[in-house]
Amino acid sequence: MRRITLALALGALALGTVGACGAQRATAPGAQDDMSLDDASAASADVSALTLSPVALLDQPVDGAHRAGDEAVYFVSRTGTVHRFVNDQLSNEPVLDISDLTEGEGERGLLGLAFSPDGSVAYLNYTNRSGDTVVASLNVAANGAFERGSLRTVITIEQPFRNHNAGDLVVEPNGMLLVPMGDGGSADDPLRVSLDDSSLLGKVLRVDAATGATTIIAKGLRNPWRVDLFDDRLWLADVGQNKWEEVSVLDSVSSRTPNNVVDFGWSAYEANDRFNDDQTSVSHTPPVLAYEHGENGCSISGGAVAVSGSLRGRYVFADYCSGRVWSTPADITSTPSSNASLASRMTLHFDAVDSPAAIVRAHNDLYVLSLSGTIWRING
Domain 2-379 carries which CATH code? Predict the structure, then answer.
């Protein structure tokens, strides 16, 4: 376990990076890698040499992604900008600025970025000035230039409250988008939408980027803030309500249709505990991992499967409140019946990282994004 202080990190950063600004309390992926668990399995048991290196500063970083044929990583600021990171240098000027379309306050802003399989199209997930979720696309030139003039709305989803917007998105190998949606906010799923098949809130959506056609492939989610698609499994870090933070896994993603929707239980359940008695989840699929509010934290920040180093073959995630960073084997298939046994699957690696909002994978590296401004690379 390593204890990290932001002051030491800032002192070690090179000049020329974007200046950080103070973080707000918030609930806090990268591109899909062509790799399977067979390639990334057998993680080393020796993770004692793991370290965190601060590599850049950015105002409220929340996501990062890479695109085919491009050595850069593109990091997202919740304020509405995207910055290019290459050779350990972050561009001072953004490659994309949509700050006029959004506002990065509370749980709103530019929240997600992904690229088409050939890297020619970027997809964004952001909240507009009215607070509704927008999934949009725009063209990206061969040299990595984002063509703002080509920005096009794919879908818009009305949000009833200011929070629980989720915000991530990933691209399947066939080019379809997977968009996780929160339950619309407030608290306790007041509109009872997560298990309601007529609502797009509290779901995982498959979206045709060309037509906007949308289908539901999973439901019963509260706020799956960060997700990771790996080996046809979608890892969902679902922020909890009163007691439990959860990691759920949607298996066999490519074969999911409206006829075999997976039900993760919220708000009939929080983890394995019964929650809203007026909600029914007959086929509740429990999380593969859960931890209780307290010393471990209060707001999970996913999360990506490591494909290199001593963490190879493990799903790595954090908690925004405690700053802890853990991992768990990425070949988990069984679901223990008790929340206590779920928590036993976690291996702690770092303690007290400042405000980790997300952990993303790009070009086989893992980055920890602190909402306070520091972008860290996990080494070892």
Answer: 2.120.10.30
Kindly give, in sequence order, each residue whose CB lies less than 8 Å from that of residue 85, ignoring residues fewer than 6 positions away.
55, 56, 64, 72, 73, 74, 75, 91, 375
Stated pTM of the model: 0.89
The answer to whether 256 and 217 are in contact (CB under 8 A) is yes
Strands 81-86, 96-97: pairing kind: antiparallel
Q: Please, which pLDDT band fits residue 26 given cuts at 50, 70 and 90?
A: very low
- The residue ranges of every structural domain in the chain are 2-379
Q: Report the distance separating Cα 342 and Cα 364, nearest Å.
A: 27
Of the listed ranges 8-17, 34-43, 252-261, 356-365, the one predicted with least confidence: 8-17
Which residue in the block uniquely carries the two structure tokens 């002192």?
A: 11
Cβ burial, residue 282 (10 Å; 0-12/13-18/19+): exposed
**Averaged pLDDT score across all residues of the chain:** 89
Contacts of 170 (CB under 8 A, 6+ apart): 29, 32, 114, 177, 178, 227, 228, 229, 234
Tell me how long the chain is. 380
What CA–CA distance (Å, rounded) separates 18 from 374? Answer: 10
**Cα–Cα distance for residue pair 243/222, rounded to 1 Å:** 13
- Distance, first Cα to last Cα, the chain: 13
Q: Please give the full DSSP string across 120-134, using - where no structure is assigned.
A: SEEEEEEE-TTS-EE
Residue 135's nearest CA partner among 97, 106, 178 is 178
Query: Is 62:74 a contact under the CB 8 Å cutoff?
Result: no
Q: Are 160 and 145 in contact (CB under 8 A)?
A: no
Q: Are 124 and 135 in contact (CB under 8 A)?
A: yes
Chain centroid, CA 187 distance in Å: 21
**198-212 pLDDT tens trace:** 999 999 999 999 999
Q: Which residue do the tokens 């988990």 mark? A: 332
